[in-house]
Design a protein that fits this description.
The chain is an alpha/beta fold. β8, α5 and β9 form a beta-alpha-beta unit. The longest helix is centred in the C-terminal third of the chain and has 16 residues. It is globular.
Length: 259
Protein backbone atom coordinates (compact mmCIF):
# COMPACT_ATOMS: atom_id res chain seq x y z
CA UNK A 1 0.00 0.00 0.00
CA UNK A 2 1.30 3.48 -0.93
CA UNK A 3 1.06 5.75 2.07
CA UNK A 4 -0.77 9.04 1.70
CA UNK A 5 0.96 12.13 3.07
CA UNK A 6 -0.94 13.46 6.08
CA UNK A 7 -0.42 16.20 8.60
CA UNK A 8 -0.31 13.62 11.40
CA UNK A 9 2.22 10.82 10.72
CA UNK A 10 0.66 8.38 13.19
CA UNK A 11 -2.39 8.17 10.89
CA UNK A 12 -0.32 6.97 7.91
CA UNK A 13 -1.35 3.34 8.25
CA UNK A 14 0.37 0.76 6.05
CA UNK A 15 -1.69 -2.40 5.60
CA UNK A 16 1.27 -4.47 4.41
CA UNK A 17 1.46 -7.74 6.33
CA UNK A 18 5.26 -7.74 6.23
CA UNK A 19 7.70 -5.31 7.84
CA UNK A 20 11.44 -5.05 7.30
CA UNK A 21 12.03 -6.77 10.65
CA UNK A 22 9.58 -9.56 11.44
CA UNK A 23 9.70 -11.35 14.84
CA UNK A 24 9.81 -14.85 13.27
CA UNK A 25 12.90 -13.85 11.32
CA UNK A 26 14.90 -12.90 14.41
CA UNK A 27 13.44 -15.28 17.02
CA UNK A 28 13.20 -19.07 17.04
CA UNK A 29 9.89 -20.89 17.20
CA UNK A 30 10.21 -22.92 20.38
CA UNK A 31 9.04 -26.52 20.26
CA UNK A 32 8.27 -26.42 23.98
CA UNK A 33 6.52 -23.01 24.02
CA UNK A 34 3.01 -23.40 25.51
CA UNK A 35 0.15 -22.01 23.47
CA UNK A 36 -1.25 -20.43 26.65
CA UNK A 37 0.58 -17.40 28.03
CA UNK A 38 -0.13 -14.97 30.88
CA UNK A 39 1.41 -11.51 30.97
CA UNK A 40 1.59 -10.26 34.55
CA UNK A 41 2.61 -6.74 35.55
CA UNK A 42 3.34 -7.71 39.16
CA UNK A 43 7.01 -8.63 39.37
CA UNK A 44 6.87 -9.65 43.03
CA UNK A 45 3.93 -11.97 42.34
CA UNK A 46 5.69 -13.59 39.38
CA UNK A 47 8.78 -14.24 41.50
CA UNK A 48 6.82 -15.77 44.37
CA UNK A 49 4.74 -18.00 42.08
CA UNK A 50 7.72 -19.17 40.06
CA UNK A 51 9.86 -19.81 43.14
CA UNK A 52 7.07 -21.85 44.74
CA UNK A 53 6.42 -23.86 41.59
CA UNK A 54 10.04 -24.33 40.58
CA UNK A 55 9.17 -22.76 37.24
CA UNK A 56 11.43 -23.34 34.27
CA UNK A 57 12.87 -20.46 32.22
CA UNK A 58 12.57 -21.45 28.57
CA UNK A 59 13.63 -18.18 26.96
CA UNK A 60 14.60 -14.59 27.71
CA UNK A 61 13.29 -11.67 25.70
CA UNK A 62 15.43 -8.58 25.87
CA UNK A 63 15.60 -4.83 25.56
CA UNK A 64 18.02 -2.16 26.81
CA UNK A 65 16.16 -2.43 30.14
CA UNK A 66 17.45 -5.97 30.53
CA UNK A 67 16.36 -9.55 29.96
CA UNK A 68 12.78 -10.63 30.69
CA UNK A 69 12.54 -14.36 31.44
CA UNK A 70 9.73 -16.42 29.93
CA UNK A 71 8.73 -18.94 32.60
CA UNK A 72 6.66 -22.09 32.26
CA UNK A 73 4.39 -23.22 35.10
CA UNK A 74 2.22 -26.30 35.36
CA UNK A 75 -1.34 -25.31 36.30
CA UNK A 76 -4.10 -27.89 36.55
CA UNK A 77 -1.89 -30.34 34.67
CA UNK A 78 -1.29 -27.93 31.79
CA UNK A 79 1.77 -25.90 30.85
CA UNK A 80 1.36 -22.12 30.83
CA UNK A 81 3.96 -19.49 29.96
CA UNK A 82 4.32 -16.50 32.27
CA UNK A 83 6.20 -13.26 31.71
CA UNK A 84 6.35 -9.63 32.80
CA UNK A 85 5.57 -7.60 29.64
CA UNK A 86 7.40 -4.42 30.60
CA UNK A 87 5.61 -1.10 31.02
CA UNK A 88 4.10 1.03 28.28
CA UNK A 89 2.55 0.21 24.93
CA UNK A 90 5.69 0.07 22.74
CA UNK A 91 7.61 -2.41 24.89
CA UNK A 92 4.60 -4.48 25.93
CA UNK A 93 3.33 -4.66 22.34
CA UNK A 94 6.73 -5.71 21.06
CA UNK A 95 7.07 -8.42 23.70
CA UNK A 96 3.61 -9.73 22.81
CA UNK A 97 4.60 -9.88 19.15
CA UNK A 98 7.75 -11.78 20.10
CA UNK A 99 5.87 -14.24 22.31
CA UNK A 100 3.59 -14.97 19.35
CA UNK A 101 6.68 -15.66 17.25
CA UNK A 102 7.92 -18.07 19.94
CA UNK A 103 4.66 -20.01 19.56
CA UNK A 104 2.10 -18.72 22.09
CA UNK A 105 -1.46 -18.21 20.80
CA UNK A 106 -3.77 -17.59 23.76
CA UNK A 107 -3.10 -14.72 26.12
CA UNK A 108 -4.47 -13.13 29.27
CA UNK A 109 -2.82 -10.13 30.91
CA UNK A 110 -3.33 -8.99 34.49
CA UNK A 111 -2.46 -5.59 35.86
CA UNK A 112 -3.67 -2.51 37.67
CA UNK A 113 -5.19 0.73 36.41
CA UNK A 114 -6.18 4.16 37.55
CA UNK A 115 -9.91 4.70 37.89
CA UNK A 116 -11.95 7.50 36.36
CA UNK A 117 -14.99 6.53 38.40
CA UNK A 118 -14.44 7.02 42.12
CA UNK A 119 -17.21 4.53 42.90
CA UNK A 120 -14.81 1.73 41.91
CA UNK A 121 -13.21 0.78 45.21
CA UNK A 122 -9.49 0.06 45.23
CA UNK A 123 -8.94 -3.58 44.34
CA UNK A 124 -12.21 -3.99 42.43
CA UNK A 125 -11.81 -6.06 39.26
CA UNK A 126 -12.41 -4.51 35.85
CA UNK A 127 -12.46 -6.47 32.58
CA UNK A 128 -11.82 -4.19 29.58
CA UNK A 129 -14.08 -4.81 26.60
CA UNK A 130 -12.38 -2.12 24.51
CA UNK A 131 -9.66 0.51 24.76
CA UNK A 132 -9.49 4.11 23.61
CA UNK A 133 -6.36 4.34 21.47
CA UNK A 134 -4.58 7.32 23.04
CA UNK A 135 -1.16 5.74 22.44
CA UNK A 136 0.96 5.18 19.37
CA UNK A 137 1.68 1.46 19.01
CA UNK A 138 -1.77 0.31 17.95
CA UNK A 139 -1.75 2.62 14.92
CA UNK A 140 1.04 0.56 13.37
CA UNK A 141 -1.04 -2.63 13.59
CA UNK A 142 -4.59 -1.49 12.77
CA UNK A 143 -6.13 1.32 10.71
CA UNK A 144 -6.88 4.51 12.66
CA UNK A 145 -10.00 4.38 14.81
CA UNK A 146 -11.00 5.69 18.19
CA UNK A 147 -11.19 2.32 19.94
CA UNK A 148 -10.02 -1.27 19.63
CA UNK A 149 -11.97 -4.21 21.06
CA UNK A 150 -10.75 -7.04 23.24
CA UNK A 151 -11.24 -10.61 22.02
CA UNK A 152 -14.79 -11.81 22.76
CA UNK A 153 -13.69 -15.36 23.61
CA UNK A 154 -11.13 -14.03 26.09
CA UNK A 155 -13.71 -11.79 27.77
CA UNK A 156 -15.99 -14.81 28.09
CA UNK A 157 -13.23 -16.98 29.56
CA UNK A 158 -12.37 -14.30 32.12
CA UNK A 159 -16.03 -13.84 33.03
CA UNK A 160 -16.58 -17.56 33.57
CA UNK A 161 -13.51 -17.74 35.80
CA UNK A 162 -14.49 -14.73 37.90
CA UNK A 163 -18.05 -16.02 38.24
CA UNK A 164 -16.80 -19.44 39.33
CA UNK A 165 -14.80 -17.82 42.13
CA UNK A 166 -17.57 -15.35 43.02
CA UNK A 167 -15.31 -12.37 42.25
CA UNK A 168 -17.31 -9.17 41.64
CA UNK A 169 -16.27 -7.35 38.48
CA UNK A 170 -17.40 -4.81 35.93
CA UNK A 171 -17.05 -4.86 32.16
CA UNK A 172 -16.16 -1.63 30.44
CA UNK A 173 -13.95 0.59 28.37
CA UNK A 174 -10.40 1.55 29.32
CA UNK A 175 -8.29 4.51 28.23
CA UNK A 176 -4.77 3.65 27.08
CA UNK A 177 -2.35 6.55 27.25
CA UNK A 178 1.37 6.96 26.61
CA UNK A 179 1.78 9.87 29.03
CA UNK A 180 0.87 9.36 32.68
CA UNK A 181 1.88 12.93 33.50
CA UNK A 182 -0.48 14.42 30.89
CA UNK A 183 -3.75 13.07 32.26
CA UNK A 184 -5.22 16.56 32.46
CA UNK A 185 -8.61 17.37 34.02
CA UNK A 186 -10.08 18.16 30.60
CA UNK A 187 -8.88 14.91 29.09
CA UNK A 188 -10.06 12.91 32.10
CA UNK A 189 -13.49 14.52 31.77
CA UNK A 190 -13.57 13.67 28.06
CA UNK A 191 -12.68 10.03 28.66
CA UNK A 192 -15.26 9.73 31.43
CA UNK A 193 -17.88 11.19 29.12
CA UNK A 194 -17.16 8.51 26.51
CA UNK A 195 -17.52 5.76 29.07
CA UNK A 196 -13.99 4.91 30.17
CA UNK A 197 -13.77 3.33 33.61
CA UNK A 198 -10.00 3.06 33.87
CA UNK A 199 -6.73 4.42 32.50
CA UNK A 200 -3.58 2.39 31.84
CA UNK A 201 -0.74 2.21 29.32
CA UNK A 202 -0.94 -1.05 27.34
CA UNK A 203 -4.41 -2.45 26.60
CA UNK A 204 -4.97 -0.78 23.22
CA UNK A 205 -1.59 -1.99 21.98
CA UNK A 206 -2.20 -5.51 23.27
CA UNK A 207 -5.60 -5.73 21.58
CA UNK A 208 -4.25 -4.34 18.29
CA UNK A 209 -1.22 -6.63 18.10
CA UNK A 210 -3.40 -9.62 18.92
CA UNK A 211 -5.94 -8.76 16.21
CA UNK A 212 -3.20 -8.19 13.63
CA UNK A 213 -1.52 -11.52 14.43
CA UNK A 214 -4.77 -13.45 14.77
CA UNK A 215 -4.41 -14.58 18.39
CA UNK A 216 -6.76 -14.41 21.39
CA UNK A 217 -6.09 -11.76 24.03
CA UNK A 218 -7.95 -10.53 27.09
CA UNK A 219 -7.04 -8.51 30.15
CA UNK A 220 -7.96 -8.34 33.83
CA UNK A 221 -7.35 -5.11 35.74
CA UNK A 222 -7.82 -4.13 39.34
CA UNK A 223 -8.85 -0.62 40.38
CA UNK A 224 -5.88 1.35 41.63
CA UNK A 225 -5.30 5.05 42.11
CA UNK A 226 -8.24 7.44 41.75
CA UNK A 227 -8.21 10.19 39.10
CA UNK A 228 -11.89 11.07 39.38
CA UNK A 229 -11.63 13.94 41.87
CA UNK A 230 -10.09 17.39 42.03
CA UNK A 231 -6.91 15.86 43.49
CA UNK A 232 -5.12 12.61 42.65
CA UNK A 233 -5.57 9.89 45.28
CA UNK A 234 -2.98 7.12 45.27
CA UNK A 235 -5.10 4.95 47.59
CA UNK A 236 -2.03 2.78 48.44
CA UNK A 237 -2.99 0.84 45.35
CA UNK A 238 0.24 -1.17 45.15
CA UNK A 239 1.49 -1.76 48.70
CA UNK A 240 -1.99 -2.13 50.09
CA UNK A 241 -3.18 -4.68 47.52
CA UNK A 242 -0.70 -7.54 47.81
CA UNK A 243 -3.38 -10.20 48.14
CA UNK A 244 -5.36 -8.76 45.22
CA UNK A 245 -2.31 -8.83 42.99
CA UNK A 246 -1.51 -12.43 43.88
CA UNK A 247 -5.12 -13.54 43.37
CA UNK A 248 -5.30 -11.78 40.00
CA UNK A 249 -2.40 -13.83 38.66
CA UNK A 250 -4.11 -17.11 39.50
CA UNK A 251 -7.39 -15.89 38.03
CA UNK A 252 -5.51 -14.93 34.87
CA UNK A 253 -3.83 -18.33 34.65
CA UNK A 254 -7.15 -20.12 35.05
CA UNK A 255 -8.85 -17.82 32.52
CA UNK A 256 -6.07 -18.41 30.00
CA UNK A 257 -6.54 -22.17 30.22
CA UNK A 258 -10.22 -21.72 29.40
CA UNK A 259 -9.33 -20.25 26.00
Amino acid sequence: MVLTAREVPILEFDSSSLALIEPPRVLPRLDDMPEHCVLCFFQEVIKAACDAAGAQVIYRLGSEVGRNPVYVLEVEGQRVALMHPGVGAPLAGAFLDELIALGARKFIACGGAGVLNGDLAVGHVVVPTSAVRDEGTSYHYLPPSREVAADAAAIDAIGRTLDAHHVPYVLGKTWTTDAIYRETPARIALRRAEGCLTVEMEAAAFFAVAQFRGVAFGQILYSGDDLSGDEWDGRSWIRGQASTREKLLWLALESCLKL
